Amino acid sequence: MKQLLQQYMSRLTSLSEAEQHAILDEILVETYSKGTVLLRQGEVPGKCYFVLKGCVRQHAVDVMGREVTSNFYTEEQAISIFNAHKPDKSSDYSLTCLEDSVLVVGPLDTEQEMYARHTQLEMMTRRMIEESFGQVQEEFAAFIASTPEERLKALLQQRPGLISRVPQHQLASYLGMTPESLSRIKKRIYREHAELEL
Q1: Where does the Cyclic nucleotide-binding domain lie (predicted)?
Q2: How far apart are CA 121 and CA 125, in angstroms?
Q3: Would you identify the CATH topology of the domain 2-129?
Q4: How confident is the model at residue 101 (pLDDT cuts 50, 70, 90)?
Q5: Of the N and C termini of the chain, which has fewer Cβ atoms inside 10 Å?
Q6: Which residues neighbour 104 within 8 Å (Cβ) at sequence distance 6 or greater?
């Protein structure tokens, strides 16, 4: 599993193989069962994660008491909660494993020590965050400007496997529609696709 992280190191740093192995020896990899809550809304995060295998949902209960899904993290995605701007440092989101998951776990209280020992690790982390943030910005801009059907088509194109991995009501919440609307739009898209193949 750590081989995936080593590929990231090779792409984002100029660390030697020996330096990569030294870092990998220090990294904590944990297995979590489906349904495990990694972080509850309102708690102060103590860890960040990198998904080697599995699916983690980011969600929150809004002021109306509705549960809203805001992201799904799957293989090769980093999970960080940026809340330093908040006086109490609490998380606006919960993180829950939707599948049995294997995650790299980074305790935030030892993060600076790791960066001090392995300076390129900080650069790699920054590049990963920049890539992720850039992608989130693009997706958010597209989400705001698109119809529910366009959102689903974009998801099917960008993350085709996700639709079969997560419950439909959570997927509908993520796409900003009702489960009934999602079902109707899916049928229409699949029917159009089938007609094009004829």
Answers
A1: 11-57
A2: 6
A3: Jelly Rolls (2.60.120)
A4: very high
A5: C
A6: 5, 27, 28, 29, 49, 50, 52
